[in-house]
Task: structure prediction
Amino acid sequence: MKNKFTRALVFIALLFGPVIAYAQQTPTSETKKISNYSYTDAFAPNFYTKNGTATRSASGQPGEKYWQNRADYQLTASLNDKTSEIIGSETLTYTNNSPDKLSFLWMNVDQNLFKNDSRGNAVIPIKGSRNGANGEKFDGGHKIKSVKVVTNLGGKVVEKEAKFEINDTRMKISLPQELNANGASVKIKIEFSYISPKYGSDRTGVLDTRNGKVFTIAQWYPRMCVYDDVKGWNTPPYQGAGEFYLEYGDFDVNIIAPSNHVVVCSGELVNANEVYSDKQQKLWAAAANSDKTVVIRSAFDVANAVSKPMAKPTLTWHYKIKNSRDVSFASSAAFIIDAARINLPSGKKSLAISAYPLECEGDSAWGRSTEYTKTSIENYSKRWFEYPYPAATNVAGNEGGMEYPGIVFCGWESKGEELWGVTDHEFGHIWFPMIVGSNERLFAWMDEGFNEFINSLSSVDFNNGEYKFPINDMHQMSEAFTRSTLEPVFTAPDCFKESNMGILAYYKPSAGLVMLREQILGKERFDNAFKTYVARWAFKHPTPDDFFRTIENVAGEDLNWFWRGWFINNWRFDQGITKVKYVKNNPKLGVVISIENLEKMPLPVIIDIKFKSGEVKRVNLPIEIWQKNVDWSFKYDSTEEIDTITLDPDHVFPDVNSANNTWTTAAGELEKDVILDPYFGTYSSSMIPIKIVITEEDGSLVAKATGQPNIPLENAGKDKFTFEQAGLTIQFNEAKTELNLMINGQTFLFTKDK
Result:
């Protein structure tokens, strides 16, 4: 007996000791469905797998020793409008700012996607694809005539053949001597040609119109691969789905086209007097000072070819653009041209330009293109970062929509809201990835998703919401966003199903940013953090970690749980109401509402409580309630009967099961609260020299031993209460005069003191 008593006494002492530091609200234990939620998974530590470095700070900004290489281009292209052949010459000056010596260079030769034996062609399914040449049979691919290293020896230019090898869409150039680190440069001259596909993976092509072909030309010259501090050379092959990752530099471009053509290109035209008539030059000057659209080359001009200033078979169009990662152009005899001034926040000006064939004319179609372009550029400049280029040109082509620095190609058949949408989207890409130069080949969501997000705000701003995006019903979208067959957003675009591109690259990441802005951080905190991200990484190469860290550091919020669930994994979300009861069965004393997280993704809680009087009160609970709980109960100080309780009433979160989001008096079960008063009292035992005081605290029954903290007890049935953390059970008799304390397989009888 003495031994038994001693063991029990020690256990009770431990039980009533340091284990009892407990929260006001306690989780419920009864559920109707087994939860898939794990708070240790959702809030696991070590989200970031590496510390900050000298090149990339732990706070998400470029480090003190951040570097990136540079590529400056002098380009010449000659267009044969009969054969669709481009014959080009490129002089590349490549500057190695890295700390590494380089013995070879890698370049992208993206037109090789359209060779019959390309990897991109090999992965096109039988049913066809957006990627590739849409089944066109032609002699596709870059033809590299020569590659030479250009040096200056004693004032004399020397060109020396360089060894090169081509593997699919990559070209490796072996340098005759290593390129030194920390600012050394090399000059490479390349002669090349290729035939443009009619449909080039929805990014480049040739459109037939009644007044001639429209050539929208892109991926046309060999472009430098990026050498960075993350992977070294970035050389994934171009398969069509994954877009581009390119170095910044200055471009000097000469385009030789038939003299009846008009050529528009990235950047600024520097020889307008050689290619436009005097009248048209005056109209350009008028457009540069007009907020209204000015027609430069009309449908009449197209029909009468009056834009040709002199009788020559070809004209050379000279364009320049600085601090750009690429250059593209369009050429056609069919172009109507109009333009208007773009007003930038600093007071600087740019120019909105549209180029389109007669088939697109009219205010219901491309006649508003310049208005759309101007407004889009001005809006994004005001919100995020000032537009850096001298012109923004919208071209009607046979692409659905494709973006390049200073120029975009949009579907020629687009009209009204569709034309606004594609114009605003493609020009939104100036910010992602033309200004913020992320790796599109690996992380499509960092340009398409971010762009889709800023488009949703722009649509509200434009013309008092003329084409305002409808607000997403996230309950309706939940299955599309989180179905089990969907890959994570973090997946590279070449590695997920083509049919999932819209969800994974565009809509799901955009919806994630909307949730962050509207529900989790708030507009001001999010906008400040997002704008800081753009400013930090303008004309640089951020990674996903740089984005995550910037948002967290600037907003002052740990969002690891959100990145992990929405971007890194494809976690589902389901919150449900499990119990409702009035305190002491009296609605005037308050109501206790119990909820549960049933799927892997946690999110904050929004609840509307509607009372019989019609009044509605909203309750917001932070994400922290899910840090160590699967379920949660909270008290609301009601003063009257409740009619309805609704979780996520505005459908702002992707809840996969709306059925458990609503409790109503008519259909829901109202749990009876246990009246605790009869249990109150002091209980003694002849088996153990300890007194237990049973009382109430915050609506729950508590047990307390002399000199020890309170133990919260959870109702577990008729006259039965438990403290599961310690495996303790207290069973009262029906008269509430005795209790049995059961722990560790032992039972101790206590009797209420009189």
Remarks:
- The CA atoms of residues 533 and 550 lie 6 Å apart.
- Residues 501-520 form the longest helix (20 residues).
- The two ends are 27 Å apart (CA to CA).
- Confidence is low (pLDDT under 50) at residues 1-31.
